Amino acid sequence: MELYLISAGVSGLTFITAHYLLKSLVERRAAEKKRLTEVVGSGHPRPIRELELSAPLFQRFFKPILKSVAGIIVRFIPAFGEEAMAQKLVEAGRPYGFSPREFMAVKCLLAGFSGFALYTASGLLVLPLVQHVAVTAAGALMGWLLPDMLVSSIIRNRKEQVERELPDVLDLITVCVEAGLGFEGAMMKVVEKSGGILAGELSRVLTEVRMGKPRREALREMADRLAVDDLSCFVGSVIMAEQLGISMGNVLRLQSREIREKRRQRVEETAMKAPVKMLVPIVAFIFPALFVILLGPAAIQIMRVFGR
Protein backbone atom coordinates (compact mmCIF):
# COMPACT_ATOMS: atom_id res chain seq x y z
CA MET A 1 0.00 0.00 0.00
CA GLU A 2 2.81 2.39 0.87
CA LEU A 3 4.52 1.52 -2.43
CA TYR A 4 1.37 2.49 -4.34
CA LEU A 5 1.15 5.82 -2.48
CA ILE A 6 4.80 6.61 -3.18
CA SER A 7 4.37 5.75 -6.88
CA ALA A 8 1.23 7.92 -7.11
CA GLY A 9 2.99 10.84 -5.42
CA VAL A 10 6.03 10.60 -7.68
CA SER A 11 3.79 10.37 -10.76
CA GLY A 12 1.74 13.39 -9.66
CA LEU A 13 4.86 15.44 -8.92
CA THR A 14 6.33 14.51 -12.30
CA PHE A 15 3.10 15.48 -14.07
CA ILE A 16 2.87 18.86 -12.29
CA THR A 17 6.54 19.63 -13.01
CA ALA A 18 6.19 18.73 -16.68
CA HIS A 19 2.99 20.79 -16.93
CA TYR A 20 4.59 23.95 -15.54
CA LEU A 21 7.73 23.50 -17.64
CA LEU A 22 5.66 23.12 -20.80
CA LYS A 23 3.47 26.09 -19.84
CA SER A 24 6.49 28.34 -19.24
CA LEU A 25 8.02 27.26 -22.57
CA VAL A 26 4.80 28.02 -24.47
CA GLU A 27 4.43 31.43 -22.78
CA ARG A 28 8.04 32.29 -23.58
CA ARG A 29 7.58 31.33 -27.23
CA ALA A 30 4.39 33.41 -27.40
CA ALA A 31 6.13 36.43 -25.85
CA GLU A 32 9.06 36.10 -28.28
CA LYS A 33 6.69 35.86 -31.22
CA LYS A 34 4.75 38.91 -30.05
CA ARG A 35 7.94 40.92 -29.60
CA LEU A 36 9.22 39.83 -33.03
CA THR A 37 5.92 40.88 -34.59
CA GLU A 38 6.13 44.29 -32.92
CA VAL A 39 9.69 44.89 -34.13
CA VAL A 40 9.67 43.32 -37.59
CA GLY A 41 5.97 43.27 -38.35
CA SER A 42 3.73 40.42 -39.30
CA GLY A 43 4.40 38.56 -42.48
CA HIS A 44 0.83 39.09 -43.63
CA PRO A 45 0.17 42.76 -44.46
CA ARG A 46 -3.31 44.06 -43.78
CA PRO A 47 -5.48 44.60 -46.86
CA ILE A 48 -5.93 48.16 -48.08
CA ARG A 49 -9.69 47.90 -47.58
CA GLU A 50 -9.22 46.94 -43.94
CA LEU A 51 -6.78 49.80 -43.40
CA GLU A 52 -9.24 52.27 -44.94
CA LEU A 53 -12.11 51.02 -42.77
CA SER A 54 -9.97 51.29 -39.63
CA ALA A 55 -9.61 55.06 -40.13
CA PRO A 56 -12.04 57.40 -38.28
CA LEU A 57 -15.29 58.41 -39.99
CA PHE A 58 -14.14 62.01 -40.35
CA GLN A 59 -10.98 60.88 -42.13
CA ARG A 60 -12.86 58.54 -44.47
CA PHE A 61 -15.96 60.54 -45.31
CA PHE A 62 -15.91 64.20 -44.30
CA LYS A 63 -12.25 65.00 -44.99
CA PRO A 64 -12.40 64.13 -48.74
CA ILE A 65 -15.57 66.24 -49.13
CA LEU A 66 -13.97 69.10 -47.25
CA LYS A 67 -10.85 68.88 -49.41
CA SER A 68 -12.94 69.01 -52.56
CA VAL A 69 -14.89 72.04 -51.37
CA ALA A 70 -11.71 73.69 -50.06
CA GLY A 71 -10.04 73.15 -53.42
CA ILE A 72 -12.73 75.33 -54.99
CA ILE A 73 -12.81 77.97 -52.27
CA VAL A 74 -9.05 78.44 -51.86
CA ARG A 75 -8.81 79.71 -55.42
CA PHE A 76 -10.64 82.85 -54.32
CA ILE A 77 -8.94 83.24 -50.90
CA PRO A 78 -5.88 85.51 -50.82
CA ALA A 79 -2.70 84.26 -49.18
CA PHE A 80 -2.67 87.18 -46.72
CA GLY A 81 -1.53 86.02 -43.24
CA GLU A 82 -0.85 82.47 -44.38
CA GLU A 83 2.46 82.19 -42.50
CA ALA A 84 0.93 83.38 -39.23
CA MET A 85 -1.96 80.95 -39.69
CA ALA A 86 0.48 78.11 -40.43
CA GLN A 87 2.40 78.86 -37.22
CA LYS A 88 -0.84 78.94 -35.26
CA LEU A 89 -1.91 75.56 -36.62
CA VAL A 90 1.52 74.09 -35.84
CA GLU A 91 1.26 75.30 -32.24
CA ALA A 92 -2.18 73.67 -32.05
CA GLY A 93 -0.75 70.33 -33.22
CA ARG A 94 -2.25 70.49 -36.74
CA PRO A 95 -5.83 69.55 -35.75
CA TYR A 96 -7.33 67.18 -38.35
CA GLY A 97 -4.28 67.82 -40.53
CA PHE A 98 -5.62 71.14 -41.79
CA SER A 99 -3.38 73.30 -43.96
CA PRO A 100 -3.71 77.12 -43.70
CA ARG A 101 -5.74 77.34 -46.91
CA GLU A 102 -8.04 74.50 -45.81
CA PHE A 103 -8.52 76.21 -42.46
CA MET A 104 -9.47 79.44 -44.22
CA ALA A 105 -11.91 77.45 -46.34
CA VAL A 106 -13.47 76.02 -43.18
CA LYS A 107 -13.87 79.53 -41.80
CA CYS A 108 -15.60 80.65 -45.00
CA LEU A 109 -17.93 77.66 -44.95
CA LEU A 110 -18.86 78.19 -41.31
CA ALA A 111 -19.39 81.90 -41.87
CA GLY A 112 -21.68 81.24 -44.82
CA PHE A 113 -23.60 78.49 -43.04
CA SER A 114 -24.07 80.53 -39.82
CA GLY A 115 -25.12 83.62 -41.75
CA PHE A 116 -27.62 81.62 -43.84
CA ALA A 117 -29.03 79.86 -40.75
CA LEU A 118 -29.63 83.12 -38.88
CA TYR A 119 -30.93 84.74 -42.09
CA THR A 120 -33.54 82.00 -42.36
CA ALA A 121 -34.40 82.21 -38.64
CA SER A 122 -34.81 86.00 -38.77
CA GLY A 123 -36.98 85.62 -41.87
CA LEU A 124 -39.29 83.27 -39.98
CA LEU A 125 -39.53 85.77 -37.11
CA VAL A 126 -40.48 88.58 -39.55
CA LEU A 127 -37.94 91.08 -38.23
CA PRO A 128 -37.42 94.58 -39.67
CA LEU A 129 -34.88 94.93 -42.46
CA VAL A 130 -32.18 96.52 -40.28
CA GLN A 131 -32.43 93.80 -37.64
CA HIS A 132 -32.58 91.18 -40.38
CA VAL A 133 -29.27 92.39 -41.84
CA ALA A 134 -27.69 92.79 -38.38
CA VAL A 135 -28.60 89.23 -37.33
CA THR A 136 -27.25 87.81 -40.59
CA ALA A 137 -23.98 89.74 -40.23
CA ALA A 138 -23.66 88.62 -36.60
CA GLY A 139 -24.14 84.99 -37.65
CA ALA A 140 -21.52 85.26 -40.38
CA LEU A 141 -19.07 86.94 -37.97
CA MET A 142 -19.68 84.24 -35.35
CA GLY A 143 -19.00 81.49 -37.88
CA TRP A 144 -15.84 83.27 -39.04
CA LEU A 145 -14.41 83.73 -35.54
CA LEU A 146 -15.40 80.35 -34.06
CA PRO A 147 -12.54 78.31 -35.65
CA ASP A 148 -9.99 80.86 -34.43
CA MET A 149 -11.41 80.64 -30.92
CA LEU A 150 -11.23 76.84 -30.98
CA VAL A 151 -7.63 76.84 -32.23
CA SER A 152 -6.63 79.39 -29.58
CA SER A 153 -8.23 77.21 -26.92
CA ILE A 154 -6.33 74.15 -28.18
CA ILE A 155 -3.05 76.09 -28.16
CA ARG A 156 -3.65 77.31 -24.61
CA ASN A 157 -4.47 73.81 -23.36
CA ARG A 158 -1.41 72.33 -25.09
CA LYS A 159 0.89 74.93 -23.55
CA GLU A 160 -0.55 74.37 -20.09
CA GLN A 161 -0.11 70.61 -20.46
CA VAL A 162 3.50 71.02 -21.62
CA GLU A 163 4.22 73.32 -18.66
CA ARG A 164 2.81 70.66 -16.31
CA GLU A 165 4.78 67.84 -17.93
CA LEU A 166 8.11 69.65 -18.29
CA PRO A 167 9.42 69.44 -14.68
CA ASP A 168 8.81 65.68 -14.44
CA VAL A 169 10.34 65.09 -17.86
CA LEU A 170 13.41 67.13 -16.92
CA ASP A 171 13.80 65.19 -13.67
CA LEU A 172 13.68 61.90 -15.57
CA ILE A 173 16.20 63.12 -18.17
CA THR A 174 18.50 64.40 -15.40
CA VAL A 175 18.39 61.07 -13.53
CA CYS A 176 19.10 59.13 -16.72
CA VAL A 177 22.02 61.39 -17.71
CA GLU A 178 23.54 61.21 -14.23
CA ALA A 179 23.16 57.41 -14.34
CA GLY A 180 25.39 57.28 -17.42
CA LEU A 181 23.03 57.49 -20.38
CA GLY A 182 23.54 59.95 -23.21
CA PHE A 183 21.10 62.77 -23.82
CA GLU A 184 19.37 60.92 -26.66
CA GLY A 185 19.17 57.76 -24.56
CA ALA A 186 17.59 59.81 -21.76
CA MET A 187 15.02 61.17 -24.21
CA MET A 188 14.29 57.62 -25.33
CA LYS A 189 13.62 56.64 -21.71
CA VAL A 190 11.20 59.57 -21.41
CA VAL A 191 9.37 58.41 -24.52
CA GLU A 192 9.18 54.84 -23.17
CA LYS A 193 8.18 55.65 -19.58
CA SER A 194 5.81 58.59 -20.05
CA GLY A 195 3.16 59.85 -22.41
CA GLY A 196 1.65 63.16 -23.38
CA ILE A 197 2.44 65.97 -25.75
CA LEU A 198 6.04 66.47 -24.67
CA ALA A 199 6.89 62.77 -24.94
CA GLY A 200 5.42 62.73 -28.45
CA GLU A 201 7.50 65.73 -29.46
CA LEU A 202 10.66 64.12 -28.05
CA SER A 203 9.87 60.99 -30.04
CA ARG A 204 9.63 63.15 -33.17
CA VAL A 205 12.99 64.74 -32.30
CA LEU A 206 14.61 61.30 -31.98
CA THR A 207 13.14 60.23 -35.33
CA GLU A 208 14.48 63.35 -37.03
CA VAL A 209 17.93 62.83 -35.48
CA ARG A 210 18.00 59.23 -36.74
CA MET A 211 17.15 60.51 -40.22
CA GLY A 212 20.23 62.75 -40.17
CA LYS A 213 19.02 66.11 -38.87
CA PRO A 214 21.37 67.78 -36.32
CA ARG A 215 20.14 67.41 -32.77
CA ARG A 216 20.29 71.12 -31.98
CA GLU A 217 18.18 71.90 -35.04
CA ALA A 218 15.60 69.25 -34.16
CA LEU A 219 15.38 70.56 -30.59
CA ARG A 220 15.05 74.14 -31.77
CA GLU A 221 12.21 73.19 -34.13
CA MET A 222 10.46 71.38 -31.28
CA ALA A 223 10.67 74.53 -29.15
CA ASP A 224 9.27 76.60 -32.05
CA ARG A 225 6.39 74.14 -32.54
CA LEU A 226 5.31 74.22 -28.90
CA ALA A 227 6.17 77.91 -28.25
CA VAL A 228 6.49 77.46 -24.47
CA ASP A 229 8.91 79.86 -22.79
CA ASP A 230 10.23 77.35 -20.24
CA LEU A 231 10.86 74.75 -22.92
CA SER A 232 12.60 77.30 -25.17
CA CYS A 233 14.86 78.27 -22.26
CA PHE A 234 15.67 74.61 -21.60
CA VAL A 235 16.45 73.93 -25.26
CA GLY A 236 18.65 77.01 -25.45
CA SER A 237 20.59 75.88 -22.36
CA VAL A 238 21.10 72.39 -23.77
CA ILE A 239 22.34 73.75 -27.11
CA MET A 240 24.66 76.17 -25.32
CA ALA A 241 26.05 73.39 -23.10
CA GLU A 242 26.63 71.21 -26.16
CA GLN A 243 28.48 74.00 -27.99
CA LEU A 244 30.66 75.02 -25.00
CA GLY A 245 31.30 71.51 -23.69
CA ILE A 246 29.66 72.13 -20.29
CA SER A 247 28.57 69.16 -18.19
CA MET A 248 25.07 68.20 -19.31
CA GLY A 249 24.12 66.87 -15.86
CA ASN A 250 24.78 70.22 -14.15
CA VAL A 251 22.83 72.11 -16.79
CA LEU A 252 19.86 69.73 -16.55
CA ARG A 253 19.84 69.86 -12.76
CA LEU A 254 19.89 73.66 -12.78
CA GLN A 255 17.16 73.88 -15.42
CA SER A 256 14.98 71.41 -13.53
CA ARG A 257 15.31 73.44 -10.33
CA GLU A 258 14.51 76.72 -12.09
CA ILE A 259 11.47 75.32 -13.90
CA ARG A 260 10.08 73.84 -10.69
CA GLU A 261 10.57 77.20 -9.01
CA LYS A 262 8.71 78.92 -11.85
CA ARG A 263 5.86 76.42 -11.59
CA ARG A 264 5.64 77.07 -7.83
CA GLN A 265 5.49 80.81 -8.50
CA ARG A 266 2.73 80.32 -11.07
CA VAL A 267 0.73 78.26 -8.58
CA GLU A 268 1.15 80.96 -5.94
CA GLU A 269 0.09 83.62 -8.44
CA THR A 270 -3.02 81.63 -9.35
CA ALA A 271 -3.84 81.17 -5.67
CA MET A 272 -3.52 84.92 -5.07
CA LYS A 273 -5.92 85.61 -7.97
CA ALA A 274 -8.55 83.27 -6.53
CA PRO A 275 -10.04 85.74 -3.96
CA VAL A 276 -10.49 88.39 -6.65
CA LYS A 277 -12.22 85.91 -8.97
CA MET A 278 -14.44 84.68 -6.12
CA LEU A 279 -15.60 88.24 -5.44
CA VAL A 280 -17.83 88.35 -8.55
CA PRO A 281 -20.02 85.29 -7.72
CA ILE A 282 -20.13 86.33 -4.07
CA VAL A 283 -21.45 89.80 -4.92
CA ALA A 284 -23.79 88.50 -7.66
CA PHE A 285 -25.29 85.44 -5.91
CA ILE A 286 -24.45 85.23 -2.21
CA PHE A 287 -24.87 88.85 -1.08
CA PRO A 288 -28.44 89.25 -2.50
CA ALA A 289 -29.60 86.09 -0.72
CA LEU A 290 -27.87 87.22 2.47
CA PHE A 291 -29.52 90.64 2.29
CA VAL A 292 -32.92 89.02 1.79
CA ILE A 293 -32.41 86.79 4.85
CA LEU A 294 -31.10 89.59 7.07
CA LEU A 295 -33.19 92.55 5.90
CA GLY A 296 -36.32 90.72 4.80
CA PRO A 297 -37.93 90.40 8.26
CA ALA A 298 -37.03 94.02 9.09
CA ALA A 299 -38.55 95.22 5.79
CA ILE A 300 -41.75 93.27 6.46
CA GLN A 301 -41.98 94.72 9.97
CA ILE A 302 -41.45 98.27 8.65
CA MET A 303 -44.16 97.74 6.03
CA ARG A 304 -46.58 96.53 8.70
CA VAL A 305 -45.83 99.50 10.94
CA PHE A 306 -46.15 102.16 8.27
CA GLY A 307 -49.03 100.40 6.56
CA ARG A 308 -51.39 100.95 9.49
UniProtKB/TrEMBL annotation:
The keyword Membrane applies. Pfam families: T2SSF. The keyword Transmembrane applies. Its main location: membrane. GO terms for cellular component: plasma membrane. The chain crosses the membrane at residues 6-26, 104-127, 133-155, 279-300. Signal peptide: none annotated. It is a multi-pass membrane protein. InterPro entries: T2SS_GspF_dom. Residues 170-295 form the Type II secretion system protein GspF domain. It is found in: Cell membrane. Keywords: Cell membrane, Membrane, Transmembrane, Transmembrane helix. PANTHER family: INTEGRAL MEMBRANE PROTEIN-RELATED (PTHR35007), PILUS ASSEMBLE PROTEIN (PTHR35007:SF2). This is Tight adherence protein C.
